[in-house]
Specification:
single chain, alpha/beta, TIM Barrel, 2 domains, eight-stranded mixed β-sheet, three-stranded antiparallel β-sheet, 23% helix
Length: 394
Protein backbone atom coordinates (compact mmCIF):
# COMPACT_ATOMS: atom_id res chain seq x y z
CA UNK A 1 0.00 0.00 0.00
CA UNK A 2 1.36 3.40 -0.91
CA UNK A 3 1.85 6.15 1.66
CA UNK A 4 0.78 9.69 0.83
CA UNK A 5 3.29 12.37 1.79
CA UNK A 6 1.71 15.76 2.47
CA UNK A 7 3.51 18.78 1.05
CA UNK A 8 5.54 20.86 3.48
CA UNK A 9 7.28 23.06 0.92
CA UNK A 10 5.18 26.17 1.52
CA UNK A 11 4.92 26.87 -2.20
CA UNK A 12 1.24 26.11 -2.71
CA UNK A 13 0.53 29.67 -3.87
CA UNK A 14 2.51 28.98 -7.05
CA UNK A 15 -0.03 26.63 -8.57
CA UNK A 16 -0.51 26.16 -12.26
CA UNK A 17 -4.24 26.42 -11.64
CA UNK A 18 -6.77 25.93 -8.89
CA UNK A 19 -9.13 23.19 -9.95
CA UNK A 20 -12.85 23.72 -9.55
CA UNK A 21 -12.94 20.78 -7.16
CA UNK A 22 -10.02 22.06 -5.06
CA UNK A 23 -12.05 22.17 -1.85
CA UNK A 24 -13.03 18.52 -2.21
CA UNK A 25 -9.45 17.64 -3.10
CA UNK A 26 -8.23 19.27 0.11
CA UNK A 27 -10.81 17.31 2.10
CA UNK A 28 -9.46 14.12 0.54
CA UNK A 29 -5.91 15.07 1.54
CA UNK A 30 -4.72 15.70 -2.01
CA UNK A 31 -2.05 18.30 -2.63
CA UNK A 32 -3.36 20.92 -5.04
CA UNK A 33 -0.53 20.33 -7.52
CA UNK A 34 -1.47 16.68 -7.93
CA UNK A 35 -2.83 16.20 -11.43
CA UNK A 36 -4.80 13.39 -12.99
CA UNK A 37 -2.47 11.40 -15.22
CA UNK A 38 -2.94 11.40 -18.99
CA UNK A 39 -2.20 7.74 -19.76
CA UNK A 40 -4.09 4.98 -17.99
CA UNK A 41 -6.87 2.43 -18.48
CA UNK A 42 -9.29 0.81 -16.07
CA UNK A 43 -8.72 -2.85 -15.32
CA UNK A 44 -10.50 -5.48 -13.25
CA UNK A 45 -7.50 -5.46 -10.92
CA UNK A 46 -7.29 -1.67 -10.71
CA UNK A 47 -5.60 0.60 -13.26
CA UNK A 48 -3.09 -0.06 -16.03
CA UNK A 49 -0.63 2.81 -16.40
CA UNK A 50 0.15 3.13 -20.11
CA UNK A 51 2.74 5.89 -19.83
CA UNK A 52 5.79 3.64 -20.05
CA UNK A 53 6.61 0.15 -21.23
CA UNK A 54 6.29 -1.35 -17.74
CA UNK A 55 2.49 -1.17 -17.99
CA UNK A 56 2.09 -1.31 -14.21
CA UNK A 57 -1.19 -2.69 -12.90
CA UNK A 58 -1.97 -0.51 -9.88
CA UNK A 59 -4.56 -1.49 -7.28
CA UNK A 60 -6.63 1.06 -5.36
CA UNK A 61 -4.36 3.05 -3.05
CA UNK A 62 -1.16 1.66 -4.54
CA UNK A 63 1.58 3.25 -6.62
CA UNK A 64 3.40 2.08 -9.73
CA UNK A 65 7.04 1.06 -10.03
CA UNK A 66 8.00 4.75 -10.27
CA UNK A 67 6.28 5.47 -6.92
CA UNK A 68 4.90 8.80 -8.16
CA UNK A 69 1.71 7.59 -9.89
CA UNK A 70 -1.08 6.47 -7.61
CA UNK A 71 -4.51 4.90 -7.99
CA UNK A 72 -6.91 7.12 -6.03
CA UNK A 73 -10.54 6.02 -6.13
CA UNK A 74 -10.18 4.44 -9.55
CA UNK A 75 -8.23 7.26 -11.19
CA UNK A 76 -4.50 7.59 -11.77
CA UNK A 77 -2.74 10.68 -10.44
CA UNK A 78 0.78 12.03 -10.81
CA UNK A 79 2.54 13.65 -7.84
CA UNK A 80 5.32 15.47 -9.66
CA UNK A 81 3.45 18.18 -11.55
CA UNK A 82 5.29 21.45 -10.96
CA UNK A 83 7.63 19.98 -8.36
CA UNK A 84 11.13 20.90 -9.56
CA UNK A 85 13.99 19.14 -7.78
CA UNK A 86 16.79 20.56 -9.92
CA UNK A 87 17.08 23.44 -12.38
CA UNK A 88 20.19 24.70 -14.12
CA UNK A 89 21.44 26.46 -17.24
CA UNK A 90 23.52 24.05 -19.36
CA UNK A 91 25.27 24.15 -22.71
CA UNK A 92 23.31 21.86 -24.99
CA UNK A 93 26.46 19.82 -25.53
CA UNK A 94 26.14 18.61 -21.93
CA UNK A 95 22.96 16.63 -22.70
CA UNK A 96 24.90 15.52 -24.82
CA UNK A 97 23.60 16.95 -28.11
CA UNK A 98 26.48 17.80 -30.45
CA UNK A 99 24.54 18.01 -33.72
CA UNK A 100 21.60 20.16 -32.65
CA UNK A 101 22.01 23.95 -32.39
CA UNK A 102 25.67 23.76 -31.28
CA UNK A 103 26.66 26.46 -28.82
CA UNK A 104 23.12 27.04 -27.56
CA UNK A 105 22.01 26.95 -23.93
CA UNK A 106 19.11 25.10 -22.38
CA UNK A 107 17.22 25.56 -19.14
CA UNK A 108 17.40 22.06 -17.67
CA UNK A 109 14.77 20.83 -15.22
CA UNK A 110 13.97 17.60 -13.43
CA UNK A 111 11.68 16.28 -10.73
CA UNK A 112 12.15 13.02 -8.81
CA UNK A 113 12.00 9.23 -9.15
CA UNK A 114 12.42 7.02 -12.23
CA UNK A 115 11.01 3.97 -13.98
CA UNK A 116 14.45 2.30 -13.84
CA UNK A 117 16.48 1.37 -10.74
CA UNK A 118 20.05 1.73 -12.01
CA UNK A 119 22.52 0.71 -9.33
CA UNK A 120 25.06 3.15 -10.79
CA UNK A 121 22.81 6.19 -11.28
CA UNK A 122 24.71 9.48 -11.20
CA UNK A 123 21.55 11.34 -10.12
CA UNK A 124 20.45 8.73 -7.59
CA UNK A 125 19.56 11.40 -5.01
CA UNK A 126 16.73 12.36 -7.37
CA UNK A 127 15.93 9.19 -9.28
CA UNK A 128 15.72 6.91 -6.25
CA UNK A 129 13.95 9.31 -3.92
CA UNK A 130 10.35 10.39 -3.71
CA UNK A 131 11.13 13.09 -1.19
CA UNK A 132 13.83 15.76 -1.35
CA UNK A 133 13.46 18.67 1.13
CA UNK A 134 12.97 22.34 0.25
CA UNK A 135 11.11 21.70 -2.98
CA UNK A 136 10.12 24.57 -5.26
CA UNK A 137 6.82 24.56 -7.14
CA UNK A 138 7.18 26.12 -10.57
CA UNK A 139 4.44 26.46 -13.16
CA UNK A 140 5.10 25.84 -16.87
CA UNK A 141 4.91 29.61 -17.25
CA UNK A 142 7.62 29.99 -14.60
CA UNK A 143 9.88 27.53 -16.42
CA UNK A 144 9.52 29.29 -19.78
CA UNK A 145 10.04 32.71 -18.19
CA UNK A 146 13.17 31.46 -16.40
CA UNK A 147 14.55 30.06 -19.66
CA UNK A 148 13.97 33.33 -21.49
CA UNK A 149 15.30 35.50 -18.67
CA UNK A 150 18.52 33.49 -18.53
CA UNK A 151 19.19 33.73 -22.24
CA UNK A 152 18.44 30.12 -23.12
CA UNK A 153 17.34 28.96 -26.56
CA UNK A 154 15.55 25.86 -25.32
CA UNK A 155 14.38 23.72 -22.40
CA UNK A 156 15.74 20.27 -21.57
CA UNK A 157 13.78 17.76 -19.51
CA UNK A 158 16.49 15.78 -17.76
CA UNK A 159 18.21 14.86 -14.45
CA UNK A 160 15.57 12.22 -13.80
CA UNK A 161 13.53 10.39 -16.44
CA UNK A 162 11.22 12.92 -18.20
CA UNK A 163 8.60 10.22 -18.78
CA UNK A 164 8.01 10.38 -15.03
CA UNK A 165 6.85 14.00 -15.23
CA UNK A 166 5.17 13.70 -18.62
CA UNK A 167 2.17 15.96 -17.96
CA UNK A 168 4.33 18.74 -16.54
CA UNK A 169 6.83 18.50 -19.39
CA UNK A 170 4.02 18.38 -21.95
CA UNK A 171 2.36 21.58 -20.76
CA UNK A 172 5.73 23.31 -20.51
CA UNK A 173 6.84 22.16 -23.96
CA UNK A 174 3.68 23.46 -25.64
CA UNK A 175 4.19 26.86 -24.07
CA UNK A 176 7.91 26.81 -24.91
CA UNK A 177 7.16 26.29 -28.61
CA UNK A 178 4.75 29.21 -28.57
CA UNK A 179 7.55 31.37 -27.18
CA UNK A 180 10.09 30.22 -29.78
CA UNK A 181 12.05 27.82 -27.55
CA UNK A 182 12.96 24.27 -28.54
CA UNK A 183 12.47 21.19 -26.33
CA UNK A 184 14.80 18.25 -25.72
CA UNK A 185 14.59 15.03 -23.71
CA UNK A 186 17.35 13.06 -22.02
CA UNK A 187 15.64 9.70 -21.59
CA UNK A 188 16.10 5.99 -21.02
CA UNK A 189 13.76 5.38 -23.95
CA UNK A 190 11.09 3.49 -22.00
CA UNK A 191 8.25 5.89 -22.80
CA UNK A 192 5.28 4.20 -24.45
CA UNK A 193 4.56 4.75 -28.12
CA UNK A 194 1.15 6.20 -27.18
CA UNK A 195 2.76 8.84 -24.97
CA UNK A 196 5.37 9.72 -27.59
CA UNK A 197 2.62 10.17 -30.17
CA UNK A 198 1.09 12.92 -28.02
CA UNK A 199 4.37 14.65 -27.14
CA UNK A 200 6.04 14.41 -30.56
CA UNK A 201 4.72 17.69 -32.06
CA UNK A 202 6.53 19.61 -29.31
CA UNK A 203 9.72 17.53 -29.12
CA UNK A 204 12.70 18.69 -31.18
CA UNK A 205 15.63 16.51 -30.09
CA UNK A 206 16.14 13.46 -27.90
CA UNK A 207 19.17 11.90 -26.26
CA UNK A 208 18.51 8.21 -25.58
CA UNK A 209 20.77 6.74 -22.90
CA UNK A 210 21.89 3.13 -23.24
CA UNK A 211 23.71 1.40 -20.41
CA UNK A 212 26.24 -1.41 -20.69
CA UNK A 213 26.20 -1.61 -24.47
CA UNK A 214 22.50 -2.44 -24.56
CA UNK A 215 23.15 -5.89 -23.07
CA UNK A 216 19.79 -7.32 -21.88
CA UNK A 217 21.50 -9.23 -19.06
CA UNK A 218 23.10 -6.02 -17.82
CA UNK A 219 19.75 -4.20 -17.81
CA UNK A 220 18.12 -7.02 -15.87
CA UNK A 221 20.90 -7.26 -13.28
CA UNK A 222 21.65 -3.58 -12.75
CA UNK A 223 18.57 -1.58 -13.87
CA UNK A 224 15.67 -3.90 -12.93
CA UNK A 225 14.55 -3.90 -16.56
CA UNK A 226 13.61 -7.32 -17.93
CA UNK A 227 12.83 -6.30 -21.52
CA UNK A 228 14.74 -3.67 -23.50
CA UNK A 229 12.90 -4.10 -26.81
CA UNK A 230 10.63 -1.09 -26.05
CA UNK A 231 13.74 1.14 -26.19
CA UNK A 232 14.40 0.13 -29.78
CA UNK A 233 10.72 0.58 -30.61
CA UNK A 234 10.86 4.08 -29.10
CA UNK A 235 13.91 4.93 -31.23
CA UNK A 236 12.16 3.67 -34.35
CA UNK A 237 9.20 5.94 -33.64
CA UNK A 238 11.49 8.93 -33.12
CA UNK A 239 13.01 8.32 -36.54
CA UNK A 240 9.57 8.01 -38.17
CA UNK A 241 8.57 11.33 -36.64
CA UNK A 242 11.83 12.96 -37.81
CA UNK A 243 12.84 14.00 -34.30
CA UNK A 244 16.59 14.55 -33.98
CA UNK A 245 18.27 11.61 -32.20
CA UNK A 246 21.59 11.27 -30.43
CA UNK A 247 22.54 8.18 -28.44
CA UNK A 248 24.76 7.62 -25.43
CA UNK A 249 26.23 4.41 -24.09
CA UNK A 250 27.49 4.26 -20.52
CA UNK A 251 30.54 1.98 -20.45
CA UNK A 252 30.60 0.17 -17.09
CA UNK A 253 33.93 -1.52 -16.31
CA UNK A 254 33.79 -5.32 -15.91
CA UNK A 255 29.98 -5.50 -15.97
CA UNK A 256 28.85 -3.46 -18.97
CA UNK A 257 31.75 -3.26 -21.40
CA UNK A 258 31.17 -6.29 -23.62
CA UNK A 259 32.54 -5.59 -27.09
CA UNK A 260 30.11 -8.10 -28.62
CA UNK A 261 27.07 -6.37 -27.06
CA UNK A 262 28.38 -2.99 -28.11
CA UNK A 263 28.96 -4.18 -31.66
CA UNK A 264 25.38 -5.46 -31.87
CA UNK A 265 24.09 -2.12 -30.57
CA UNK A 266 26.09 -0.06 -33.06
CA UNK A 267 25.07 -2.34 -35.92
CA UNK A 268 21.41 -1.87 -34.95
CA UNK A 269 21.84 1.91 -34.85
CA UNK A 270 23.41 1.89 -38.32
CA UNK A 271 20.83 -0.42 -39.86
CA UNK A 272 17.71 1.10 -38.28
CA UNK A 273 18.49 4.76 -37.61
CA UNK A 274 21.26 5.52 -40.08
CA UNK A 275 25.02 6.10 -40.05
CA UNK A 276 24.76 9.80 -39.19
CA UNK A 277 23.16 9.37 -35.74
CA UNK A 278 25.78 10.62 -33.24
CA UNK A 279 26.91 8.13 -30.60
CA UNK A 280 28.51 9.29 -27.34
CA UNK A 281 30.50 6.88 -25.17
CA UNK A 282 30.20 7.93 -21.54
CA UNK A 283 32.66 7.31 -18.75
CA UNK A 284 31.38 5.44 -15.71
CA UNK A 285 31.57 7.17 -12.33
CA UNK A 286 31.33 5.06 -9.17
CA UNK A 287 28.01 6.21 -7.71
CA UNK A 288 25.05 4.98 -5.74
CA UNK A 289 25.36 1.23 -5.00
CA UNK A 290 28.04 0.39 -7.56
CA UNK A 291 31.78 0.82 -7.25
CA UNK A 292 34.50 -0.63 -9.43
CA UNK A 293 38.21 -0.91 -8.83
CA UNK A 294 39.35 0.54 -12.16
CA UNK A 295 38.08 2.85 -14.91
CA UNK A 296 38.56 2.65 -18.64
CA UNK A 297 41.60 4.19 -20.28
CA UNK A 298 41.89 6.30 -23.40
CA UNK A 299 42.88 3.20 -25.37
CA UNK A 300 39.85 1.20 -24.25
CA UNK A 301 37.49 4.01 -25.26
CA UNK A 302 39.29 4.38 -28.56
CA UNK A 303 38.93 0.65 -29.21
CA UNK A 304 35.17 0.92 -28.71
CA UNK A 305 35.06 3.97 -30.97
CA UNK A 306 36.78 1.93 -33.69
CA UNK A 307 34.16 -0.82 -33.30
CA UNK A 308 31.38 1.71 -33.89
CA UNK A 309 33.18 3.12 -36.92
CA UNK A 310 33.67 -0.41 -38.28
CA UNK A 311 29.90 -0.85 -38.04
CA UNK A 312 29.46 2.25 -40.21
CA UNK A 313 28.69 5.06 -37.77
CA UNK A 314 30.01 8.47 -38.85
CA UNK A 315 30.09 10.39 -35.57
CA UNK A 316 31.38 8.61 -32.46
CA UNK A 317 32.41 10.69 -29.45
CA UNK A 318 34.36 9.65 -26.35
CA UNK A 319 35.50 11.51 -23.21
CA UNK A 320 38.79 12.00 -25.06
CA UNK A 321 37.40 12.97 -28.47
CA UNK A 322 34.63 15.57 -28.65
CA UNK A 323 35.39 17.35 -31.92
CA UNK A 324 33.21 16.88 -35.01
CA UNK A 325 34.96 15.89 -38.24
CA UNK A 326 33.61 15.46 -41.75
CA UNK A 327 32.88 11.76 -42.18
CA UNK A 328 34.00 11.94 -45.80
CA UNK A 329 37.30 13.88 -45.86
CA UNK A 330 38.18 14.22 -42.16
CA UNK A 331 38.05 18.03 -42.10
CA UNK A 332 37.60 19.51 -38.61
CA UNK A 333 34.09 21.03 -38.51
CA UNK A 334 33.45 21.88 -34.85
CA UNK A 335 36.16 22.09 -32.20
CA UNK A 336 35.12 21.75 -28.57
CA UNK A 337 36.78 22.32 -25.22
CA UNK A 338 34.89 19.97 -22.94
CA UNK A 339 31.25 20.92 -23.65
CA UNK A 340 32.00 24.35 -25.11
CA UNK A 341 32.34 24.79 -28.90
CA UNK A 342 35.39 26.97 -29.54
CA UNK A 343 35.43 27.15 -33.34
CA UNK A 344 33.18 26.42 -36.31
CA UNK A 345 34.28 25.43 -39.79
CA UNK A 346 31.02 24.65 -41.50
CA UNK A 347 28.63 26.13 -44.04
CA UNK A 348 25.76 26.85 -41.65
CA UNK A 349 22.22 26.78 -42.95
CA UNK A 350 18.99 26.11 -41.14
CA UNK A 351 17.94 22.50 -41.51
CA UNK A 352 19.83 19.23 -42.08
CA UNK A 353 21.97 20.57 -44.93
CA UNK A 354 25.08 21.94 -43.27
CA UNK A 355 28.03 21.08 -45.48
CA UNK A 356 31.76 20.55 -45.16
CA UNK A 357 33.60 23.58 -46.59
CA UNK A 358 36.36 21.33 -47.96
CA UNK A 359 34.54 18.51 -49.77
CA UNK A 360 30.93 19.75 -49.76
CA UNK A 361 29.51 16.61 -48.15
CA UNK A 362 26.34 17.03 -46.09
CA UNK A 363 26.80 16.96 -42.33
CA UNK A 364 23.62 16.53 -40.33
CA UNK A 365 23.81 19.35 -37.80
CA UNK A 366 20.39 20.84 -37.22
CA UNK A 367 19.91 24.53 -36.59
CA UNK A 368 22.57 27.19 -36.28
CA UNK A 369 26.06 27.14 -34.81
CA UNK A 370 25.75 29.89 -32.22
CA UNK A 371 29.09 31.65 -32.21
CA UNK A 372 28.30 34.20 -29.53
CA UNK A 373 30.50 33.76 -26.47
CA UNK A 374 27.99 35.53 -24.24
CA UNK A 375 26.84 33.45 -21.30
CA UNK A 376 23.24 33.31 -20.13
CA UNK A 377 22.27 34.63 -16.74
CA UNK A 378 23.55 32.26 -14.07
CA UNK A 379 20.76 30.42 -12.29
CA UNK A 380 19.71 31.65 -8.88
CA UNK A 381 21.42 30.11 -5.89
CA UNK A 382 18.22 28.29 -5.05
CA UNK A 383 18.00 26.81 -8.54
CA UNK A 384 21.50 25.36 -8.35
CA UNK A 385 20.72 22.58 -5.93
CA UNK A 386 18.08 19.97 -5.37
CA UNK A 387 15.04 22.05 -4.64
CA UNK A 388 13.05 19.31 -3.01
CA UNK A 389 10.05 17.16 -3.76
CA UNK A 390 7.03 15.70 -2.10
CA UNK A 391 5.16 12.74 -3.47
CA UNK A 392 4.08 9.16 -3.03
CA UNK A 393 6.19 6.60 -1.27
CA UNK A 394 5.46 2.96 -1.98
Amino acid sequence: MGVWNVCSCGQCAELRKVNSDSVEREKEGLHLTVQEAMFWESNSNGIICTLCARRCIIAEGDVGFCRVRKNIKGKLFTAVYGEVSAAYVDPIEKKPLFHFNPGSYVYSIGTSSCNFRCKFCLNFSLSMNVYVPDQDSLTPENIVENAQHRGCQGISYTYNEPTIFFEYAYDTAKLAHKEGLFNTFVTNGYMSVEALEVFAPYLDAVTVDFKGGGDPKFYKAFCEVSNIEPIFEFLGELKKKKIHIEITNLVVPHYGDSVDSFRRLTAWIHDNLGPDVPLHLLRFRPECMMNVSSLHSFQEFDNLRKVAVEEGLYYVYTPYSRNTYCHSCGELLIERNSFEPTSWNITSKLGPHNTCPKCGKKTVILGKCLQSKAKPYPPSARALGYLGYWGFEG
